[in-house]
Amino acid sequence: MRFALPPRRFMVACMAASTALLIAGSPIGASAADVAQPVHGGTLNFVVDPEPPTLVDLTNTAVPTLKVSTKVTEGLLTYDFALHPGPQLATSWSVSPDGLQYTFHLRHGVKWHDGQDFTSADVAYSIELLKRVHPRGKSTFANVTQIKTPDAFTAVLVLLKPSPFLIKAFSASESPIVPKHVYEGTDPFSNQNNNAPIGTGPFKFVKWVRGSYIEYDRNPDYWDKPKPYLDKIIVKLIPDAPARSIAFETGSVDLGGNTPVPLSDIARLKQNPKLGIETRGYEFEAGVVRVEFNLGNQYLKVPAVRQAIARAIDRNVIQKTIYYGYASVLNSPIIPESPYHDTTPTPYPFDVTKANALLDAAGLARNGDGVRFTVIVDPLPISDIPQRTAAYLRSALAKIGIAVTIRNQDLPSYLRRVYSDHDFDIAVNGMSNLFDPTVGVQRLYWTQSIRHGVPFTNASGYSNPEVDRLLEQAAVEPDEAKRKQLFGQFQQIVERDLPDINLVEQQQVTVYNKRVHNHTTSPDGLDSNFSDVYLSP
Amino acid sequence: MTSSNLKRVALRLRRTGAQAIPTVIAVVVLNFALLQLVPGDAADVLAGESGSATAETMAMMRHHFGLDLTLWQQLLTYLKHLSHFSLGFSPRFNTPVMTLIMARLPNTLILMVSALVFAIVAGIIIGVAMATWAGKWPDRVLSFLALVLYSMPGFWLALMAIVLFSVKLGWLPSGGDMTLGVNLTGWDWLVDRVSHAVLPALALASFFVAIYARLTRVAMLEVQRQDYVRTAQAKGLHPLFITVRHVLRNALLPITTVAGMHLGNLLGGAAVIETVFSWPGLGRLALEAVQGRDYNVLLGVLLLSSMLVIVANVLVDLLHAWLDPRIALH
Description:
The complex is a heterodimer.
Chain A: H1 7-25, E1 43-47, H2 63-72, E2 77-79, E3 85-87, E4 90-95, E5 101-106, H3 120-133, H4 137-140, E6 144-151, E7 154-159, H5 180-183, E8 203-209, E9 213-218, E10 232-236, H6 241-250, E11 255-256, H7 263-271, E12 275-278, E13 287-293, H8 303-312, H9 315-322, E14 327-329, H10 352-361, E15 373-379, H11 385-398, E16 402-406, H12 411-420, E17 426-432, H13 437-440, H14 442-445, H15 465-476, H16 480-497, E18 500-506, E19 510-513, E20 516-517, E21 534-535
Parallel strand pairs in A: 1-10, 1-11, 15-16, 15-17
Antiparallel strand pairs in A: 2-3, 4-5, 5-7, 6-7, 8-9, 9-10, 11-19, 12-19, 13-17, 13-18, 14-18, 20-21
Helix pairs in contact in A: 8-10, 15-16
Chain B: H1 3-37, H2 42-50, H3 55-65, H4 71-83, E1 89-90, E2 95-96, H5 97-132, H6 137-151, H7 154-168, H8 186-224, H9 227-235, H10 239-266, H11 271-276, H12 282-291, H13 295-323
Helix pairs in contact in B: 1-13, 2-3, 5-6, 5-8, 5-10, 5-13, 6-8, 7-8, 8-10, 10-13, 12-13
């Protein structure tokens, strides 16, 4: 059958039609950013990976757990980007001049999702419980001896010694306030509230279909009216990274944090006019990527060898090639955003010639194949980035005559090997500074942190009495200037001693659909309670 | 069926039942031993995911998981649960294992059965086409297609299908087993579920289509040369009738055998396809159980798979007996 319309007119008609469609479809008029007033309604599709093992961050502080727990369970305080505290379940607070008493005045009229009243008894019970079962609770609340509740809306923490970092520890993502009447007298690990939580938060738990999704509904009785703005949050559990990229592109997912897509996809997603990339919101989690030495290894125990390895690594390559630019070069264990960061440059800048000279001087000559000795590198098997860093390490160390074998295993095997059996040479991992160096950094360099069988402690076996003294003093020093000085000295010593080499600070990324607003309003980022989040229509 | 056939079926089922019990015990003991060889335990995993731990919290977790008991005690506790038809409790998921498995079993069954059915139907049609025009160009083209499907990795095919049908064309969803946040009923619900199952089933079936096509082709060519087929042609029966009723029916025997084996294997779950499509099935559950060192869940899934393999074998035997009366049940 022949087409009646002459070809030329057909082409013109097609072009006109397609141009018309383009104009109609293009976003002329109000863009998402112009909607200043929050709008009620809508369902947020939030992707979290991997699936959280529990829905309350009481006994477990895995990254996905923090993302979901805080929508239901709240904390006493929130924080702004300068880490200054603001009110959540506590409306005002004060710290005594000697730092031994913390008084919190609690919000009136707050109810748990089952209708019971929130009181200071819940706060006292929660903090005692956190001290007992929270992965960090024992060290965070180590100096807290007693929690007094003079009335139903006042809680006083009594300390034995000052804890200068404690005021930063009351976010929902760090110290959740759980209902006493639900947890009292039960085993906190097996309490079913962990799978079907009630809290004081803006969203109520509805159901958890394992392997598939978690559903939360708006809490109409939330204390901060008229919030929340969303009707519903659906947490989608998508285990495959490229599948998550695709979910963002098809609009099936609106928001995801902790770099939900492969780093190589970010450039492409940035081009998509419907999607945006956010790098703020990870200040509490900030992680330092490091190479950790087992100081028991016959070669690595020699300082010159470690210095040579430090000189053989070009941090810029790691930042640009492995992290696609989503990292900043670092030689200190404390992140640059922290007020305690010391800016002294590394004593061992990148210099392959000097590295070779150091090893030659140490008496480690190259054999016939050009190899001085062999080491095994174990990368942390969480995401594939440590493996790629290990691959870079292999090529960098080959230039100074060290042959590297990369050993891959799954997470529990890695943890056993490094922290229980100490059966490793070099481990590539990343450690979070958390909200204060005493909580996040001390555990890596303190002699008392050499614990058999406990992950993410001092695996190198590093023990320096001077460092111990500095850290222990900084842990209780209430004067900020002195504390900064102590941490400064500490950083300079460990950068010189090299029990590990700090490489970069990883920059985590949030991918969001531009319809989503107010997802990142604090250093908690997507770990906040989402009461401010709204969707533009 | 005749009464002697029925008696044979009953005998077969009773023998299967008797074989099942030692199989169950062997599966449990063997897998339990194997899992103990892998370093690390569930407490390590949870502490690792938390990014922090203290010696006290790890001791508490181990106690909570029952990992502080001796190996013999753990094994005996598990067998005791099993004798009461309970699969135990998963400390990591904090739910009974039976609940976890039953939630995922229907999804796995839907995926496997639809993939196999599609693979068998498509495979037979392609195989018949190849056999009918054996040696001519349709046969060569289809053979090449079968080779490509056989050698292409399933997950790559899956990702390409998602990019084409979900991202570019927007016809089908990219993952999951249903649309969330909406309450659909009746026809809408069915359409939604089917649209989510299409791509995973096709991706899973791709490999098997090639196998069944080749098998059908070979079997049919083999049967076509038999003398009873020549007799049927001499009798003047319609060629289509001969192809379907005589040739195909005999050719189905090797196909059903192989399909039965595949069904048994697949019911363990296709972890890769389930991961790519975020399909909540048993394969992913088993994988997560291994990575989380959750022995109870893993043993539950493995037990279930072995039971289903036994059931699949019995069904295939029965099917053979029905297809070909010459095959007697033992």
